[in-house]
Write a structure and sequence with these properties.
single chain; alpha/beta
């Protein structure tokens, strides 16, 4: 199914974004939904604070945004987003959660954009495309 979307959008200029999500089905839905809107999702199923430097290596180094699921196996999305900022990463960072809202002060100080699950893919893609060009 993803192959069909890849073929139909092959001529479209896509913007890369990283999606850190431990649920493969959720990641596939994000890939399909975002590709239709001009965003190519690079799925990372598992990452830790110690392996965050992988996001600065190809193919992830060209991504304009990093999207974290808040609840990940082994790590908190908030902790990973903080570590990414502490490492000097200036890309857009989104935090998706179906749970409680994160601390607004933390989001503001770390320039993290919060979205509730299920994400509005149209709005998410538009934000990535608009802000990712700045």
């Amino acid at each position: 199914m993803l192959k069909e979307y890849e073929q139909s959008t092959a001529k479209m200029q896509l913007t890369d974004a990283i999606y850190i999500e431990d649920d493969d089905q959720e990641a596939l839905l994000m890939q399909i939904g975002m590709r239709r809107r001009g965003v190519n999702i690079l799925h990372v199923p598992y990452i830790t604070v110690d392996t965050l430097d992988e996001l600065s290596q190809p193919p992830y180094d060209q991504a304009v945004a990093v999207i974290f699921d808040e609840m990940l196996v082994g790590e908190s999305g908030v902790k990973l987003a903080n570590a990414l900022r502490a490492n000097g990463d200036q890309r857009l960072i989104f935090l998706l959660t179906a749970g409680d809202n994160p601390d607004p002060r933390l989001l503001t100080t770390q320039s993290i954009l919060f979205r509730r699950k299920p994400a509005n893919l149209e709005e998410l893609a538009n934000t990535i495309l608009k802000l990712g060009r700045l």
